[in-house]
Amino acid sequence: MTESKKKEILSDFIDDLNKERKPRAYRASQVDEETEKLFETVRALRRTQRKGEEGKGTKNSQVTKGGGRTGSNRQQVESPLAWRLKKAALVAGAALLILVAFLGVLDTEYFPQQNIVHGVVKAYEDLESYAGTAEIRSRRNGEVDYQETIEITYQKPWRYKAVHHFDGREVKNISDGERLVSVYPHDITVDNVFPEKELWRYHIGNQVWELKGAEEVKEVGEESILGRQALVLEYRYRDYDYRMWIDKKTNLPLKKELTRHDGTSSLVVEFKDIEINPQVDPELFTHEGVKPGEDIFILEQEQEYEEINRRGSLEEVNTPFNLEKLKESLPSSYDLFAVGILEENPFFRYVLRFRGEQEMDFLDVYLSSSPREGAFFSASQLGKLGEGYVEVNRGAPNVMDLYVGDRSIARWVTPEFEAFLVANQGSDLPLKLLEKVSGEEMEDATLSQLKKESVEFPAEKEGP
After folding, report:
1. Angle CA 114–42–85, to nearest 5
2. What CATH code is assigned to 123-276?
3. DSSP helix/strand/coil, 430
4. Predicted TM-score of the model (pTM)
5. Among 28, 31, 25, 29, which residue's Cα sits nearest to residue 429?
6. Within this chain, domains 123-276 and 310-452 share the same CATH topology
7. Which of 118, 262, 323, 377 stands the most exposed, by the fewest C-beta atoms within 10 Å?
8. What transmembrane ranges does the database entry give (predicted)?
9. Along the 464 residues of the chain, how does pLDDT read in single tens digits?
């Protein structure tokens, strides 16, 4: 990597950290070890800088968590010139520290534990499967108010069997990587399009990606869990403070804890036993009620069966949206995983699901020929694009109640169609693709400006 390219990457990374968004470098490709060390150096410099600024307060100023000082009614605002000088110093400092570190002069202060976050991410990338028992506990005012155990066997990508026990009930979620079968006491539901949707609460991969997305991670000690020595980390993610226990031998999470600031409640996800890379029988990911070689479910007495969507083909997708241009514009690492026909969805008729090289690299494209004006996410950016308008949000929360956590979205509404794109948090892929499909760049605008410019907002129609 050239020096100019390093400076460009570092400059973008520092901008993203200061705007409190996921760094662009993580959004669409794997960050190599050299670049990750550069990023950790920047984080270390920021930590050192904050400590220095915290020591400069006066008796009339209060030090904020980010290092800025505020008086009783006024807040000091950093000038653009001061920020440019500070960023240049960070970039130069990072490059110098990398050189010194490679010469062996600098050790743990700026590269603690040889970058534990990078080690955790690498360990999960090398993982093929795991099996164990996880426990979820919710505690309020010192009392456990909810407890669930999950017997989980997972194999990449998205194959898993999870048996949940809570409130005296048992629920099974079984995915063969393409469809999810959920077995409840009185019914069976099948999701043919979103096999991964029940993993979010306890999946090791989710914990790793969360840790990777944290702005700053601190090691606060060591403890023994399951007879294993674990590093205890503290980090902040999506405005919440967490602790995570990392197995020193495997570099993988064993426990995660979220505690409210006032200490009145906490949520813990903890593995009670776990095996890494066990041999897994593929038959485990097939529901026992399916006849061999057939797609027929054997139901127990009083059980009901429902498929909430179905898989189709591109030939079934009838839309004015330019699908060919979309496919041409996708990164080469993305492949079509599934075409979903959403017959029960009130807003969209189709979803095209694309996957990248890494497990969390994805793009989902929802399409409807009956566009709606609809509501906007808070903090969304609006603009004009082609014959319609676009909404962009790189951190939209709990999209459609399907994507738990934050995701990057871009929604394009025209008189003829609505396209809603969802990708990893912080990704600019949704907007870039819409701009390529339209052949134009988004023009920033407020809602009132769009209406004044006579951007046509579609009348609501029945159905998707």
Report:
1. 160
2. 2.50.20.10
3. helix
4. 0.72
5. 28
6. no
7. 262
8. 88-106
9. 666 666 677 777 777 776 656 677 765 455 666 677 677 666 666 655 554 544 444 333 332 333 333 333 333 444 555 555 555 555 555 555 544 444 444 444 444 444 788 899 999 999 999 999 999 999 998 889 999 999 999 999 999 999 999 999 999 999 999 999 999 988 899 999 999 999 888 999 989 988 887 878 899 999 999 899 999 999 987 778 899 999 999 999 999 999 877 777 889 999 999 999 999 999 999 886 655 455 656 666 667 888 999 999 999 999 999 999 999 999 999 999 999 999 888 899 999 999 998 888 899 999 999 887 767 888 899 999 998 999 999 888 889 888 877 889 999 999 999 999 999 888 889 999 999 999 999 999 887 887 776 565 554 444 45
Fold annotation for 310-452: Protein Transport Mog1p; Chain A (3.40.1000)
What's CA 121's distance to the chain center, in Å?
Answer: 14
Concatenating the DSSP letter of every residue in 157-172 gives: TTEEEEEEEETTEEEE
Q: What CA–CA distance (Å, rounded) separates 343 from 308?
A: 8
CA distance 196 to 174: 10
Structure tokens that stand for 44 in this block: 């270390």
Q: Parse the chain into domains and list their residue ranges.
A: 3-114, 123-276, 310-452
List all residues 6 or more positions away from 464 whose beta carbon is below 8 Å from its beta carbon: 342, 345, 346, 347, 348, 349, 368, 369, 370
> CB of 229 within 8 A of CB of 212?
no
